[in-house]
Amino acid sequence: MSELTGRTAEELGAAIAAGETSAVEVTRAYLERIDAVDPTVHAFLHVAAEPAVAQAAEVDRRIAAGEKLGPLAGVPIAVKDIVVTKDMPTTAASKILENWLPPYDATLVRKLREAGLVVLGKTNLDEFAMGSSTEYSAYGPTRNPWDTSRIPGGSGGGSAAAVAAREAPLAIGTDTGGSIRQPGAVTGTVGAKPTYGGVSRYGLIAFSSSLDQAGPVTRTVTDAALLHEVIGGHDRCDSTSIDAPVPPVVEAARRGLTGDLTGVKVGVVREFAAAQGAEPGVVAAFEAGVQTLTKLGAEVVEVSCPHFEYALPAYYLIAPSECSSNLARFDGVRYGLRVGDDGSRALEEVMSLTRDRGFGPEVKRRVILGTYALSAGYYDAFYGQAQKVRTLVTRDFTAAFEQVDVLAAPTTPFVAFPFGSRTADPTQMYLADLYTIPSNLYGGPAISVPCGLSEGLPVGLQIMAPTMADDRMYRVAAALESTQSPRLADQTPEVTA
Amino acid sequence: MAAISREEVAHLAHLARLAVTEDELDTFAGQLDQIVSSVARIGEVAADDIAPTSHAVPLTNVMRADEPRPGLAREAALAGAPAVEDDRFRVPQILSEEA
């Protein structure tokens, strides 16, 4: 393994800017690492080796020409394959979009390219981002670099595994119910979900539009903040994008690294502590993390968020409802797969056959569940009630943030589980997102930062902040990270087949 | 609450334009029933006087000036289509013989 793949994105950007190495050299080092370990890890669905080297050469030329680029210029990045990339396959890990080449770049990808980041390729995920283990990818699962018999989390398992296995220093994920943070926690990486609307959704293949949010997957909190600053901000192409400047996240992360949290009030949610099913090792690592925050000067208090326990059931009505509507666009007419069009069948039948062949089991389950929840006679009982729960969860957050600056919770109830252990029972799989879903319903930012090991596997600690106070969560997360030596992210897991 | 029947799943799948096999009808009926019973308790707290929230960001219509500008080029729009004829999307027949 090249020494270059051991560095953080911040270090790589600085070395490239100082002329100690070049974007091409760094890109080649990561492509070699991908060649060496991706046959085992399977983090990537598509590696754009030649375009990446060409893009890196262009960045080197811009730097040589004296162009002022950002701190991540020349740094490679992997992008979750639900974000569209011009002339690069985008499949959402579904057979229905096999070999599809989008005609445009998502806004966040355009921003990455403009800032000089080099797109290495597209990472694996649960089909259409529906899942918590990356086992629902139509192209086969990704393996957790810490233990290849275990899941890398989901839906962004590919992005998290790519960063954990040093196949990319940075990755983009999307988080609808925890799909950035939960894979981050189980692979020992940092996963940040910015405030809803803080990063443009233009060019994200929609799953649940009122919840989906793109964000950074990285090795360190500072790297996440640097990437957040590149992709954040208002976008005219996304009418739900917030028209306000990106909060000072990099400055906050640097302040956090000084390790002083004096004057910061951290709330621990009582109802989470009482929730059933959390593994003792996860709880112990979380409690040790909270102890550390106290030692750094933070005041830790218990707060009550009585409706958080209803967030998971509300999510599993809202997300499938929105997905059943969003996925109606996959009708075999304008792009993607078409099945059964032999001249003997009418459109409706071709559509049904196409969707049957193109969608995997979890997508079908959610489309049917969503159709049920939105159907006449059940709408008020399910979808309508779920939207009221969303109001109650939001009120809980608002009340909590009147007492404290941030909330802390475990990111996941359990460490990475073995493949196949939860696929038989969807409701068991859904529990993986128990602690992450409330902030999606509320729309505030949340980050998962590694806080220790349980049974030799990584555990994440989650920091949630008020809407548009993303800087607060970066400060607290960076402070926690500063106490770790070596950082979990610096311990490269040995990848074995 | 009544259990979700195979017939109901078949009807929902039809509404969603999703062909399903006999095996899938059995599997989904059982799983949907389990999922729906596990989420039904949201009714415990969602009282009449609570307003629903559909979105984390309060939204009003976002308008822009109505200025003509070029759209996606025809070749680009058709490039990913499963079937193309005479520079258009070719669609299976909408009405079947017997309709």
TrEMBL record, chain A:
Task: Quote the cellular component terms of the Gene Ontology held in the record.
Answer: glutamyl-tRNA(Gln) amidotransferase complex
Enzyme Commission numbers on file: 6.3.5.7
Q: Where is the active site?
A: 80, 155, 179
Q: Does the keyword Ligase apply?
A: yes
Superkingdom of this entry's organism?
Bacteria
Query: Where does the Amidase domain lie?
Result: 25-472
Where does the UniProt annotation place the signal sequence?
A: none
Q: Is ATP-binding one of the keywords UniProt gives this record? A: yes
Q: Which reaction does it catalyse?
A: L-glutamyl-tRNA(Gln) + L-glutamine + ATP + H2O = L-glutaminyl-tRNA(Gln) + L-glutamate + ADP + phosphate + H(+)
> What HAMAP family does the annotation carry?
GatA
How is this protein named in the record? Glutamyl-tRNA(Gln) amidotransferase subunit A
**Species in which this protein is naturally found:** Actinocatenispora thailandica
Organism lineage string: Bacteria, Bacillati, Actinomycetota, Actinomycetes, Micromonosporales
Q: Which gene encodes it?
A: gatA
From TrEMBL, chain B:
- UniProt cross-references to HAMAP family, sorted A to Z: GatC
Put simply, this protein is called Aspartyl/glutamyl-tRNA(Asn/Gln) amidotransferase subunit C
Give the range the annotation lists for the signal sequence: none
- Name the gene for this chain: gatC
Arranged from A to Z, the UniProt key words for this protein are: ATP-binding, Ligase, Nucleotide-binding, Protein biosynthesis
What Gene Ontology molecular function terms does this protein carry?
ATP binding; glutaminyl-tRNA synthase (glutamine-hydrolyzing) activity
Residue ranges of coiled coil: none
| Protein source organism | Actinocatenispora thailandica
Gene Ontology annotations of biological process type: glutaminyl-tRNAGln biosynthesis via transamidation; regulation of translational fidelity; translation
Q: Which reaction does it catalyse?
A: L-aspartyl-tRNA(Asn) + L-glutamine + ATP + H2O = L-asparaginyl-tRNA(Asn) + L-glutamate + ADP + phosphate + 2 H(+); L-glutamyl-tRNA(Gln) + L-glutamine + ATP + H2O = L-glutaminyl-tRNA(Gln) + L-glutamate + ADP + phosphate + H(+)
Enzyme class name: ligase
E.C. number: 6.3.5.-
A Pfam family (short name) is GatC
